[in-house]
């Protein structure tokens, strides 16, 4: 049977099972003899070598007991083996090298003397029994100290950590999944900090022979002498993921906007409006990526999600590429500015609608925009949908207007229920005002040319943790980091990839959700019209595409398949223009009923939105219920079946599951999205 090696950082892909086999007596369910043999196996090799040396000395004495030449040969062999051991131990630690050389020197010296004089001559028997046993025991002691059930051992990791400048750092815990290994690091107090681990990440990646951004570090929020090291050896995002369709069709813009997946399969999502209960501010977003990095395609995916929501309107500008990027989405955009003149007018209108919208929110008692704002108010006034202003290829707009053109809106628009998105290739100080960049707050960063570009968009915490979009450049379109409001910091340095969204999926979303999307509210429309006049009131409205065939019905249905849909009907027809052939006698008897169709109203159970701590407690209670029911494996989807308890999003639930993994309550399995439940008592110990 193959001998299992203890777990080491350098062999994280095979070591965890070995450590469990050596330390967990429950791994074998046989009798006492099998149990004892299992516990003794790791410590038998030194004793077997010692016994073999004694046995081999008997035939050696018979062959060479009277030979002077054999004496010379055995002495030289003893010296040669000792020298070779010292030379071969150079890559290991100094203690291991010295221990190995002393063991070989003592063993070969005794064997030479026993072969020449006989194993029973003089003090040789006592030296064999005492010295051989002592040497074997030293190797057993060394092994016991290296394989520590509490995880606080150095072992083979010490040499690696010393090489990368993390001497005296101990690996206190290790969790190994099929394509992910997580190690708890205890740093020497007063000597090293998580910043030192961050600086060592490139060297660690080199030592482990993985990509630079495959090694990440997360500092402990409560203890600056601790950190968590994550290693992901294989890139599971290569194949990408097709856009699965709207995540919340007909839902609110307050629901998360799903834009892609993380490397562990979790949803990559962003939030636009704020949520005081969740402690989340409204988002302004900077999207950055070099040409060919998939930045525009990622933006289209986000906008495709946005236009399927019921309480948001979009103003967008792209004076650089006009319809090339935004083309499929234009019919769903309330105001699309595709020339520089229109873009300037749109920005002027944006500045004008901020105070108007803020006044409306204050009038109805809203401290910030929330979904209730889009509903009809108590006095019968129409609601006010959320407004997203999307500046595609914003560098041209800034260059031809003013580098501070977005600074004022970025500082004031959040309180008015407006989210600003600025997309450009490089957010350097020559491209965008540093004041504007500081006001955006959130960033979605695709492949970049170098680390200097990354500094313009990513927060220091993400870069210190190992985020390096410069490793992708334009070679991996769609790969990105999302550091945004509502995203746990543990995900800031986790690579994700935006969905692959084909044009026909965008076209379908534009057509099918036309009746769902909000129209521009009177407050916003009036302020924009007063500010720029015809530039707004006569803005180009792009016609909706024909509904896809799958959305139509046959002759017995409501719509004829592939029939054109008239979206420009007159809301106030002129009575003088009535067609007499279409006149219906109101006193005529109704025809008999041929078919009755019952439409049941949606039954929406009441939900109580819990606070952050209460929601976490609800998650813990649900996990305990699963465990009490005898379940051994669960996934985020199982928690979502009970989501009425805490009224949280899939992204939030996935984040909580990840925290349970880090805290040792769950362990990933070979099946993506499935986790093994770790019993509470061992986890607490």
Short description:
With 685 residues, the chain is α/β, with parallel strands linked by helices.
Question: Can you tag this structure with a few keywords?
Answer:
single chain; 685 residues; alpha/beta; 10-stranded mixed beta sheet; 4-stranded antiparallel beta sheet; 23 helices; 17 strands; 39% helix; 12% strand; elongated; disordered N terminus
List the uncertain runs: 1-8, 13-26, 148-156, 550-582, 600-605
Shape: elongated
For the largest sheet, list the strands in their spatial order. 6-5-14-13-12-7-11-10-8-9
- Find the structural class using helix and strand composition: alpha/beta
Described by strand count, sense and barrel closure, the largest sheet is: 10 strands, mixed
Provide the β-strand percentage band.
Answer: 5-15%
Task: Compute the number of helices.
Answer: 23
Mean pLDDT: 80
**Could you estimate the helical fraction of the residues in percent?**
25-40%
Spatial gap, N to C terminus? 32 Å
The total strand number stands at 17
Radius of gyration: 35 Å
Oligomer: single chain
What does this 3D model show about the protein?
Helix content is 39%, strand content 12%. Strand 16 and strand 17 form a beta hairpin.
Topology (SSEs and partners):
Blueprint: H1 15-23, H2 32-40, H3 45-64, H4 68-88, H5 94-117, H6 124-146, H7 157-163, E1 170-177, E2 180-186, H8 194-208, E3 215-219, E4 226-231, E5 257-262, E6 267-270, E7 284-288, H9 295-306, E8 312-317, H10 323-326, E9 335-337, H11 340-363, E10 386-391, H12 394-400, H13 407-412, E11 418-424, H14 434-440, E12 441-445, H15 451-457, H16 460-464, E13 479-483, E14 496-498, H17 503-512, H18 522-532, H19 534-537, H20 612-628, E15 633-634, H21 636-640, H22 650-662, E16 666-668, E17 675-677, H23 680-684
Parallel strand pairs: 7-11, 7-12, 8-9, 8-10, 10-11
Antiparallel strand pairs: 1-2, 2-4, 3-4, 5-6, 5-14, 12-13, 13-14, 15-17, 16-17
Helix pairs in contact: 3-5, 3-6, 4-5, 5-6, 11-18
């Amino acid at each position: 049977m193959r001998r299992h090696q203890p777990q080491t950082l350098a062999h994280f892909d095979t070591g965890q099972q070995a450590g469990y086999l050596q330390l967990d007596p429950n791994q074998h369910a046989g009798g006492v003899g099998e149990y004892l043999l299992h516990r003794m196996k790791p410590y038998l090799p030194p004793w077997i070598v010692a016994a073999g040396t004694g046995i081999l000395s008997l035939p050696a004495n018979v062959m060479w007991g009277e030979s002077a030449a054999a004496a010379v040969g055995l002495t030289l062999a003893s010296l040669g083996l000792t020298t070779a051991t010292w030379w071969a131990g150079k890559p290991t630690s100094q203690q291991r090298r010295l221990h190995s050389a002393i063991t070989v020197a003592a063993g070969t010296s005794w064997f030479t003397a026993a072969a020449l004089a006989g194993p029973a001559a003089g003090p040789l028997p006592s030296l064999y029994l005492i010295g051989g046993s002592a040497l074997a025991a030293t190797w057993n002691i060394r092994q016991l100290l290296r394989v520590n059930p509490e995880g606080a051992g150095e072992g083979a990791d010490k040499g690696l950590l010393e090489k990368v400048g993390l001497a005296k750092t101990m690996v206190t815990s290790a969790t190994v999944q099929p394509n992910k290994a997580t190690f708890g690091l205890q740093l020497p107090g007063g000597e090293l900090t998580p910043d030192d681990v961050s600086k060592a990440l490139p060297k660690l990646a080199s030592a482990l022979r993985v990509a630079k951004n495959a090694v990440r570090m997360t500092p402990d929020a409560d203890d600056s002498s601790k950190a968590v090291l994550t290693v992901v050896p294989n890139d599971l995002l290569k194949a990408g993921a097709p856009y699965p369709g709207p995540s919340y069709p007909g839902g609110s813009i307050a629901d998360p906007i799903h834009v892609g997946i993380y490397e562990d399969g979790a949803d990559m999502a962003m939030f636009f409006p704020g949520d005081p209960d969740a402690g989340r501010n409204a988002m302004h977003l900077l999207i950055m990526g070099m040409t060919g990095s998939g930045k525009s395609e990622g933006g289209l995916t986000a906008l495709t999600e946005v236009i399927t929501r019921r309480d948001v309107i979009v103003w967008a500008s792209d004076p650089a590429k006009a319809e090339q990027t935004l083309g499929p989405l234009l019919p769903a955009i309330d105001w699309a500015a595709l020339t520089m003149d229109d873009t300037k007018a749109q920005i002027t209108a944006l500045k004008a609608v901020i105070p108007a919208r803020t006044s409306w929110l204050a009038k109805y008692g809203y401290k910030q925009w929330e979904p209730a704002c889009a509903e009809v108010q108590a006095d019968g006034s129409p609601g006010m949908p959320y407004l997203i202003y999307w500046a595609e290829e914003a560098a041209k707009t800034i260059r031809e207007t003013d580098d501070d053109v977005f600074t004022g809106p970025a500082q004031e628009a959040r309180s008015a229920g407006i989210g600003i998105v600025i997309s450009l290739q490089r957010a350097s100080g020559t491209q965008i005002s540093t004041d504007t960049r500081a006001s955006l707050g959130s960033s979605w960063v695709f492949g970049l040319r170098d680390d200097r570009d990354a500094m313009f968009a990513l927060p220091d915490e993400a870069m210190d943790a190992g985020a390096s979009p410069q490793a992708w450049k334009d070679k991996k379109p769609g790969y990105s980091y999302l550091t945004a409001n509502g995203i746990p910091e543990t995900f800031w340095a986790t690579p994700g990839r935006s969905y692959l969204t084909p044009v026909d999926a965008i076209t379908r979303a534009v057509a099918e959700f036309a009746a769902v999307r909000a129209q521009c509210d009177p407050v916003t429309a009036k302020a924009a019209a007063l500010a720029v006049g015809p530039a707004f009131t006569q803005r180009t409205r792009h016609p909706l595409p024909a509904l896809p065939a799958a959305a139509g019905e046959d002759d017995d249905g409501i719509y004829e398949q592939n029939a054109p849909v008239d979206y420009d009907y007159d809301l106030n027809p002129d009575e003088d223009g009535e067609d007499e052939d279409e006149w219906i006698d109101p006193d005529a008897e109704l025809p008999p009923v041929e078919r009755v169709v019952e439409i049941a109203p949606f039954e929406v159970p009441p939900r109580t939105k819990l606070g952050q701590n209460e929601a976490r407690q609800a998650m813990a209670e649900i996990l305990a219920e699963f465990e009490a029911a005898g379940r051994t494996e669960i996934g985020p989807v199982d928690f979502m079946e009970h989501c009425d308890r805490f009224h949280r999003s899939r992204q939030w639930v996935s984040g909580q599951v990840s925290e349970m993994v880090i805290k040792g309550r769950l362990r990933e399995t070979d099946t993506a999205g499935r986790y093994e439940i770790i019993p509470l008592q061992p986890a607490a110990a």
